[in-house]
Design a protein that fits this description.
Strand content: 15-25%
Helix content: 25-40%
Number of helices: 21
Structural class: alpha+beta
Largest sheet: 6 strands, mixed
Number of strands: 24
CATH topology of the largest domain: D-Maltodextrin-Binding Protein, domain 2
Strand order of the largest sheet: 17-21-16-20-18-19
Bound molecules: alpha-D-galactopyranose, calcium ion
């Protein structure tokens, strides 16, 4: 006997078609329980001051081969290259203590560099390459190891800061006497250029999207002297700016090379400025620990130590310990394979399709790499483009989709079409994935289960919602049509933007398309490589997108302005049109008010209450449709020392920042022969030898 679905049965008995039964909407509930999964390795909790301080030491050291450059008159002595008071990492906080010089860290990445102009919005290929090259005013990656009572961003290029009594002004003191990797002084000229010619210039956006709103609407910046600047706000004590001083928001570029080619100071167009530093250009000046010295398309980027790096250990050894860093230009899946096999050194294991094999190999006695799982902080959301007034210049079809997206029943239909158990199992079987309702992740500090609304999977309910949104399958081909007068009454068709560089993104997007079709919505994939996908997202050229979420849904305090359309450009899925207008739905306006109140509050209890409100607004109204969330694992070759316990692959930042690579070393007796450019330092045309 053929088993009839519950939906079909009453329809047969009543002798009416199944689609006429629109009443069966399944009510939302609280999220289903998550399978038990414990993180491996607890962080050692310390205060920020246990980790480092700024102070002058008696004397400084450098690798022997670098001294040869000094002797040859090619480089000033190390003490002159360092700031008067460098950042000093304390040995007591180093998991394995003071390190040895030498060694190579071999990364593998799936991205490709567009060029070195991070400030012009160019990607360097991700996987931590830009994190290793740029330094920012504050640092938040390592905060996973900081005591909750001392939780505040760590000083970095900003050595200290003071609030005015009324909280309307912040004075920021930069590290004094630090240099770019080519020897040019780092000072407020770099801050001035970053703020006035990048952040405040509407024609250009830095890679991670900082705008004035990131620091509060109406915020201004004044230079006081070479190492001091102030910021003036329109609200009191917006402490979130300290988090937005961190990667990738307030990371100034080398004004001495950027300014001369910027349209405000040259005949260049903005396009020419953006493309002025192609990947073939070597020796691009950085404040980070390593400088690019070799690039071969689709093959490798090699970076060598920055002889002007401004951090040292307690014995005065100039950092980093590692002389060379590689970025093999391959695929993200290959990063896992190579890290596990020992031909690469590092991976954020984040694509569940690779979990079983990676776990199996890492458990063997002769496994070259350690693998440790962290909390469930990798999650994917299906986001509707919520702009109804022209962001991304939609054509007639896309505009019609936007109007559906702005309809609550349509979004409820989409979420109830998602079988999250099946989606999770299509990635990996086992206790890894959970059904993710969207919004803040379960297990994170601001998560409140009671404020989380979960719409269970139900095709019947999905269809009821689509019909309540005004859709009907008028031609009987199984797919909903546009109402009469729209798009000639043809089938509704939506496209799903996704990143083709990750098998997980592809699998999820394919699952979403299949499930939408089961619910009667015709969908097509728009799979683009990382850089093109990012461009489509940032310019609003999409209907819906499958996206791996950022840090704001984990930490709330990092990239807070991303949580809602608080400004013209802050949201992922609702930005202003060309005239700068935002057409917020009423509940979006409430989200904005809640996020602004959160930013303006210094009261912990009030902040948690506000985030509960945020979670309810998000999950009830489906600002995004959560899909799945799961833990990632850090894979690092066993020869590396000073890897902090419990380093998550993603929290305030990615593991490439969390592990503090400038302190990581390979013990001398374990150093393998991986260096491609031994005994060289970065030069304008590639690696340079002494003499
Ligand atoms: C990519 C990778 C992540 C991480 C980041 C760093 O997004 O998928 O695992 O390496 O780059 O920016
Ligand atoms: Ca149809």
């Amino acid at each position: 006997m053929k088993i009839l679905s519950r939906a079909a049965l009453p329809a047969l008995m009543l002798g009416v078609s199944a689609t006429a039964l629109t009443a069966q909407m399944v009510e939302p509930t609280t999220p289903p329980p998550a399978p038990e999964f414990s993180a491996q390795g607890e962080p050692v909790f310390v205060n920020r001051s246990d980790m480092f301080e700024y102070r002058a030491l008696e004397s400084y050291n450098e690798p022997e081969f670098v001294s040869a450059f000094v002797e040859a008159g090619m480089l000033p002595p190390v003490a002159e290259r360092l700031p008067a008071e460098p950042m000093v990492y304390k040995a007591g906080n180093m998991p394995d203590g003071i390190g040895d010089y030498g060694g190579t860290l071999r990364h593998v990445i799936g991205g490709r560099p567009e060029g070195w102009n991070y400030w012009g919005g160019q990607s360097q290929g991700w996987g931590g390459i830009d994190i290793g090259m740029t330094e920012c005013l504050t640092r938040t990656g390592p905060l996973f190891t900081i005591n909750p009572e001392d939780l505040e961003p760590m000083p970095n290029l900003a050595k200290s800061w003071e609030w005015s009594d009324d909280g309307m002004m912040l004075t920021v003191n930069l590290i004094e006497g630090a240099h770019w990797s080519d020897g040019d002084p780092f000072d407020t000229e770099d801050i001035d250029f970053y703020w006035n010619d990048i952040v405040m210039n509407g024609e250009v956006t830095p890679l991670n999207g900082a705008t004035q709103t990131t620091y509060g609407e109406g915020t201004t910046l004044e230079i006081v002297d070479d190492y001091t600047f102030t910021m003036t706000f329109t609200t009191a004590f917006p402490e979130s700016v300290l988090y937005n001083f961190a990667y990738g928001n307030f990371c100034p570029g080398p004004s001495h090379v950027l300014k001369p080619v910027h349209p405000s100071y040259s005949d260049n167009t903005m396009e020419q400025f953006i493309n002025a530093f192609p990947p073939e250009d070597m020796g691009f000046p950085v404040m980070g620990a390593w400088v690019p010295v070799e690039y071969r398309a689709d093959d490798i980027i090699v970076l060598r130590r920055n002889p002007y790096y401004w951090k040292v250990d307690e014995e005065g050894n100039q950092l980093p310990y590692l002389d060379e860093v590689h970025y093999r230009l391959s695929t993200w899946a290959d990063r896992d394979v190579q890290a596990v096999a020992g031909t690469g050194d590092f991976s954020n294991l984040e694509q569940p399709e690779n979990y079983v094999e990676s776990l199996r190999r890492s458990a063997e006695d002769d496994a070259p790499a350690r693998l440790a799982f962290g909390p469930r902080t990798i999650g994917y959301t299906l986001y509707p483009n919520l702009s109804g007034n022209g962001w991304g210049e939609p054509d007639e079809r896309a505009q019609a989709v936007r109007e559906l997206n702005r309809n609550a029943d349509f979004r409820k239909g989409i979420t109830q079409a998602m079988d999250r158990v099946r989606l999770g199992e299509s990635l990996v079987k086992g206790p890894f994935t959970v059904q993710y309702p969207g919004g803040l992740y379960a297990g994170t500090s601001y998560y409140d289960e009671a404020s989380t609304v979960f719409y269970p999977y139900s095709l019947e309910s999905a269809r009821a919602h689509f019909e309540a949104a005004g859709l009907a399958d008028t031609d009987g081909d199984g797919f909903y049509n546009w109402p009469e007068g729209m798009m000639d009454g043809g089938n509704v068709q939506i496209t799903i933007l996704a990143n083709t560089d990750y098998q997980t993104d592809r699998n999820l997007a394919e699952g979403v398309v299949a499930m939408l079709e089961e619910a009667g919505i015709q969908a097509a994939l728009n799979l683009l490589t990382g850089n093109d996908r990012d461009a489509a997202q940032n310019s609003g050229r999409y209907d819906w997108m499958v996206l791996r979420n950022g840090t704001s849904l984990i930490t709330v305090v990092q990239n807070t302005t991303e949580l809602a359309p608080v400004g013209a450009q802050t949201s992922l899925n609702h930005r202003a049109n060309a005239d700068g207008e935002l057409d917020l739905l009423p509940w979006e306006q409430e989200m904005v008010d809640v996020v602004n109140a959160f930013i303006g509050s210094r009261d912990a209890a009030e902040r948690s209450e506000l985030m509960s409100q945020y979670q309810r607004l998000y999950t009830e109204n489906l600002y995004g449709v959560g899909l799945t969330a799961y833990p990632g694992a850090l894979i690092i070759n066993k020869r590396f020392a000073n890897i902090p316990a419990g380093a998550p692959i993603f929290m305030y930042n990615w593991a490439e920042d969390n592990i503090i690579r400038e302190r990581v070393y390979v013990p001398a007796d374990a150093q393998a022969d991986h260096e491609l450019h031994p005994n060289t330092l970065p030069g304008d045309d590639g690696p340079v030898t002494a003499g």
